Description:
With 541 residues, this protein is an alpha/beta fold. Helix content is 32%, strand content 23%.
Amino acid sequence: MNTPDDPGTHARGDIIDAHPHREAVVVLDYGSQYSRLIVRRVREARVYAEVLPWDAPADRVRALAPRAIILSGGPNSVYDDGAPTLPAYVLELGIPVLGICYGMQLLAHHLGGEVRPVERREFGHATVTIDEPAHPAFVGLPEAPVAWMSHGDQVVAMPPGFRAIASTGTCPIAAMAGTTPTGSAPVIGLQFHPEVAHTPQGLDLIRNVVTGIAGCAPTWTAGSFIDEAIETIRTQVGTGRVLCGVSGGVDSTVAAALLHRAIGDQLTAVFVDNGLLRKDEARTVVASLGEHLGVHLVAVDAAADFLGHLAGVTDPEAKRMVIGERFVRTFEREARAIAAHDGPFEFLAQGTLYPDVIESATPETKSAAKIKTHHNVGGLPADLAFRLVEPLRYLFKDEVRAVGSALGLPDDIVWRDPFPGPGLAVRILGEVTPARAAVLREADAIFVHEVKAAGLYRGLGQVFAVLTDSRSTGVQGDYRTYGHVVALRAITTDDYMTADWARLPYDLLARVATRIANEVPQVNRVVYDVTSKPPATVEWE
């Protein structure tokens, strides 16, 4: 097998950054829960954006050749010991800078203004009075838009040369404008949050900043991404052969389709049945991938291996680590077997997405708290014998679907309900066994079937059942039972970074609960999860 010089390294240099850099905006993350929403809004303006930690190396930022920098909000005060600071390059690059909430306060503090705590922390809607309607940031906005406030400090004295361009009843400097110290580029500060849905004209404001003030062309589309990604993949891979792990879900399928368009027969797709798939999933995936992708597909039954290594494992993070390693070891074994006939593989391709990277708190997003380790990010072994190819690494789910449609994939693949790589293992609380997996598989199939029959499936972000580690007393057929408790989960979301629980009709939930209790004898109680993300995550583990 051909391997990199250091087969134990899968650092940034070994990962394909398949995204355009010609028109880019960098978002510096100061620990805000909204930082990823800023990226979302910039991309909705059809300009590429990427979030980096506030203390990312200057070379990493310069490599993106940004046309603008946006400073996020954050939980700190500028006067806190150890509070995040403003990197020198931000004002030295000669490009527009937008500071939001803490970002605005940081700019004011750094440039000679004054920031003070407010008497009462402000959270919620506020009516903004635009004091300078002609400012380019406010083009097309109403005179008194509604915006979302979330702050404990605010700017009380602006830096020299700055002026107030908006205010509220409790915040006289709700927005300020000036220039960098050399006068080479505009600087804007907003105390309110344009990136959240609670600010209805927020997208318009952000679009004004990135396309109007920064001059970015709104050209970042699925088609432009595909062209750039193909070029990048070909440059990275060269004549090397790529092994792509596919699950049948939209992420890995789109990644495989993109790779196949870029490198053709250099790609071999491997589908691993880990014993943790949904009902009839293995058969459906093999059929659909072979038919629609036209790639060389190898199907592997590794259920006994995965379930054997999961025996006795109950901690969710440990499960993900085990599954991540078994996937890689399976790919390595299959690569050796295929290489004996067709030649060695140097690269491993995955359908890793931006939310996976963010939630796993990789080094490139170290400002974010680790929510959970994704098996395909933090769950990879240290001695990985491949270089990674992850062409979707910086895309959100809806962007992946757009790319899939642009590649010509059918709707039943593009709009398939997301399924986690660890499969049912992260939907089984406690130990994963073949018997418990079988129970959940049947309950999940009933739930999904009824949602589809009700015509609601396409409008939901995710629909699944969870086998809890609780047992409950029940009465079935006049006999006492002590059965499993199944939880149902359905969410609505745009980006999977946040989600709301779906308001499914009561009669639908009643049908599902009745069917599960009648058709899955091990279950005698069904509950419905009405928790949003945050505070919960989409999955239970």
